[in-house]
Amino acid sequence: MAHEHKLEIFRGLLKFKSNVTKIWGVFTVLSIVTVVEVALGIIKPEWLTENRFMAMKLLNWIFIILTLAKAYYITWDFMHMRDEVKAMRRAVVWTGVFLICYLVLILLIEGDYIYEVYKSNYVKFNF
Question: Could you tell me the residue ranges of all domains in the chain?
Answer without folding.
Answer: 1-83, 85-127
